[in-house]
Amino acid sequence: MKPLSLLENIKVCIFDMDGTLVDSLGIWDDIDERFFHQYGLEVPENYGKALAHMSFMEMAQYTKETYHIPDSVDTIAQTWINWSQDAYLYTIEAKPGVKEFLTYLKSLGMPLSLATANRRSLYEPCLVRNGLDSYFDFIDNVNDLNTAKNEPKIYLHLASQMNSKPEETLVFEDVIQAVQTAHDASFKVVGVYDKRNENSFEDIKKVANHIIMDYRDLLS
Predict the structure, then answer these.
(1) Domain end marker among 73, 91, 109
(2) pLDDT tens digits, the chain, 220 residues: what are they?
(3) Do 10 and 56 lie in a common domain?
(4) Residue 132 shares a structural domain with residue 153
(5) 47 and 13 share one domain
(6) In what order do the strands lie in the sheet with 112-116?
(7) What is the distance between the alpha carbons of residues 15 and 4, in angstroms, rounded to a whole number?
(8) CA–CA distance, 167 with 122 (Å, rounded to integer)
(9) Of the residues 91, 125, 143, the one at which a domain ends
(10) Which residues, other chains included, contact 209 with Cβ-Cβ below 8 Å and sequence gap of 6+?
(11) Count of beta carbons in the 10 Å neighbourhood of residue 113
């Protein structure tokens, strides 16, 4: 697939971050295991899938209430932040071909935005270290907008900031819930393959307008 086939009738692009632009989902698998083990529990089946569309604090609230975790929601969230901070600061890398693809989009004069469910304290240093921060005209996270990715508020807000209609806006996501949300709101959607969405990738294929297995495929 060539980039121009993705971009037909498209004015702007919105990207998710974790699992879409950067290889970060593995660190959360490790944190889930460490977190539940400290309470003598195994990571629940489909735990990641249940949290996929939530904001950071909603994840903490859900985890506390569903699995009867004795710590407060704030303590749970802060534990996750503390454990993940070094990874976002020092080790998490952009997916292969991402920077080159963003450079290509900017060479066309296309406005770009980032829509993430992550915390600003984590995503900002990761973007800066990977040299990705300067590509985005706007960055929103669901926590600041008091929303989650099971509703299209973040996509609509960013599209409005970039003076674009949903049907003129291309959204890049790696999670089926977010892909479905954007699609249902009339956005054009690119489903991005990640090794941790293999089990749901067939569902993503059915909903998304386009599929990316590897950004380098767009540049060859």
Answers:
(1) 91
(2) 566 688 999 999 999 999 999 998 788 888 999 999 999 999 998 898 888 778 889 999 999 999 999 999 999 999 999 999 989 999 999 999 999 999 999 999 999 999 999 989 999 999 999 999 999 999 999 989 999 999 999 999 999 999 999 999 999 999 999 999 999 999 999 999 998 888 889 999 999 999 999 999 888 7
(3) no
(4) yes
(5) no
(6) 138-141, 112-116, 12-15, 169-173, 188-192, 210-212
(7) 17
(8) 31
(9) 91
(10) 183, 188, 189, 190
(11) 24
Q: 181 lies in which domain range?
A: 3-24+94-218
Structure tokens at 214: 């590897």
Query: Tokens in use for 96?
Result: 């292969």
Residues 13 and 69 in one domain: no
Q: At what angle do helices 56-67 and 73-86 cross, to 10 degrees?
A: 120
The pTM score is 0.89
